[in-house]
């Protein structure tokens, strides 16, 4: 089968074409406009999606070298995400499915971040069931027990900020541009992760909290800057390394607890923060250190992309799990089985 997939939940407009589990094309138009504002502006995001969606879909079809008449179905992100952004993708997908008279498939974005591991690619291996998925992104932080393609149970999640937000807000305090996560990662490589110490939150069980970390970094910077106005510039690499170290400790502690509680040692990560080099090397080391088997998706399938929507579309297509034309986008769309 040939599935056209559309992703427009946040600030990336993406379209992909899959043939079964293989990606024929995966085009992503990242909206640069938000950098100026230090964060995603919802109104501007939906306008940019409106401008990008047709050219991005054309490009995806052209790169896949197929005609739209060959498509078997259209999959789109129903939620969670920004309502104005979701509406653009949902309306486009509905119209095209009607125009071509082919089935429409709705996809949960968080399920897609997890099933991205099943995209067939020489550079990545798929986990066996059951496995633990840790989805770490700009809007979410979850540990999910994945029993099959469609049976997923959230066993831990953040009570406040997402881990990507913790990276981005910390970066903002350091005067770095948005999104600051990749920059913290970059500077952290040059610094000493033990230079400064930040407190880890005390949250029972498998849930996370990141808002306290941001506050303690703010106080730390205010105090140090009073003593030396050049403190941040002179110590940027050490500060970034120490922040990243604290965040990674929090993530790894919860993963260890999740393994202990479930007995499942297959760990798959996903979401934009899975691009972080620190978490990648921690997980790679955990294979030897704790006997885990770890799965890290290819970089382009970590951040928001339509290929991951397409793989969910593929599995739903096989089940004939199609959506009606009156389906509505959902800004809050809980992952459940
Ligand atoms: P969601 O998937 O929850 O809707 P989103 O679409 O904003 O959220 P993604 O595109 O999956 O999230 O991820 C973006 C986040 O990943 C940003 O917060 C960004 O800073 C972070 N990020 C990307 N690369 C890195 C990196 N190398 N190190 C740390 N954080 C990173
Ligand atoms: Fe995402």
Automatic annotation (TrEMBL):
The record, for InterPro entries, names: ATPase_NBD, Gcp-like_dom, KAE1/TsaD, TsaD
The residues listed in the UniProt record as binding Fe cation, with positions renumbered to this chain, are 109, 113, 304
EC annotation from Swiss-Prot or TrEMBL: 2.3.1.234
Residues engaged in binding substrate: 135-139, 168, 181, 185, 276
The enzyme's main class, written as a single word, is transferase
Reactions listed under catalytic activity: L-threonylcarbamoyladenylate + adenosine(37) in tRNA = N(6)-L-threonylcarbamoyladenosine(37) in tRNA + AMP + H(+)
Source organism superkingdom: Bacteria
Q: How is the cofactor bound?
A: Binds 1 Fe(2+) ion per subunit.
The protein's matches in CDD domains, at most eight in alphabetical order, are given as:
ASKHA_NBD_TsaD_bac
Q: What UniProt keywords are attached to this protein's entry?
A: Acyltransferase, Cytoplasm, Iron, Metal-binding, Transferase, tRNA processing
Cofactor(s) this protein requires: Fe(2+)
> Per the record's keyword annotation, is Transferase included, yes or no?
yes
**From the UniProt record, which GO molecular function terms apply?**
tRNA N(6)-L-threonylcarbamoyladenine synthase activity
Coiled-coil ranges per UniProt:
none
**Residues covered by the Gcp-like domain:** 22-310
Annotated localization? Cytoplasm
Family classification: Belongs to the KAE1 / TsaD family.
Q: What does this protein do?
A: Required for the formation of a threonylcarbamoyl group on adenosine at position 37 (t(6)A37) in tRNAs that read codons beginning with adenine. Is involved in the transfer of the threonylcarbamoyl moiety of threonylcarbamoyl-AMP (TC-AMP) to the N6 group of A37, together with TsaE and TsaB. TsaD likely plays a direct catalytic role in this reaction.
Q: What is this protein called?
A: tRNA N6-adenosine threonylcarbamoyltransferase
Q: Which organism is it from?
A: Croceitalea marina
- Upper taxonomic lineage: Bacteria, Pseudomonadati, Bacteroidota, Flavobacteriia, Flavobacteriales
């Amino acid at each position: 089968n040939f599935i056209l997939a559309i992703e427009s939940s946040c600030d990336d407009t993406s379209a992909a074409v899959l043939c079964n589990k293989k990606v024929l094309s995966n085009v992503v138009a990242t909206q640069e406009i938000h950098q100026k504002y230090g964060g995603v502006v919802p109104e501007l995001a939906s306008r940019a999606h409106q401008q990008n969606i047709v050219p991005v879909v054309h490009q995806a079809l052209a790169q896949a070298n197929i005609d739209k008449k060959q498509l078997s179905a259209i999959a789109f992100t129903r939620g969670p995400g920004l309502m104005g952004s979701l509406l653009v993708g949902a309306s486009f997908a509905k119209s095209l499915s009607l125009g071509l008279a082919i089935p429409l498939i709705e996809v949960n974005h968080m399920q897609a971040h997890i099933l991205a591991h099943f995209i067939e690619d020489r550079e990545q291996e798929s986990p066996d069931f059951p496995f633990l998925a840790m989805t770490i992104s700009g809007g979410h932080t979850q540990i999910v027990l994945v029993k099959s393609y469609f049976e997923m149970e959230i066993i831990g999640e953040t009570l406040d900020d997402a881990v990507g937000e913790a990276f981005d807000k910390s970066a903002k305090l350091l005067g770095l541009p948005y999104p600051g996560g990749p920059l913290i990662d970059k500077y952290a490589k040059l610094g000493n992760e033990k230079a400064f110490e930040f407190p880890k939150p005390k949250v029972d069980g498998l849930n996370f909290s990141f808002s306290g970390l941001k506050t303690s970094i703010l106080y730390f910077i205010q105090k140090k800057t009073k003593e030396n106005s050049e403190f941040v510039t002179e110590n940027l690499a050490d500060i970034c390394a120490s922040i990243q170290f604290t965040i990674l400790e929090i993530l790894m502690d919860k993963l260890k607890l999740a393994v202990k509680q479930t007995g499942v040692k297959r760990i798959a990560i996903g979401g934009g923060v899975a691009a972080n080099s620190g978490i990648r090397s921690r997980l790679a080391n955990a294979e030897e250190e704790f006997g885990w088997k770890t799965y890290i998706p290819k970089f382009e399938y970590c951040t928001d992309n339509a290929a991951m929507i397409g793989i969910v579309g593929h599995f739903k297509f096989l089940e004939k799990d199609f959506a009606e034309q009156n389906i509505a986008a959902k800004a809050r769309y809980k992952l459940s089985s």
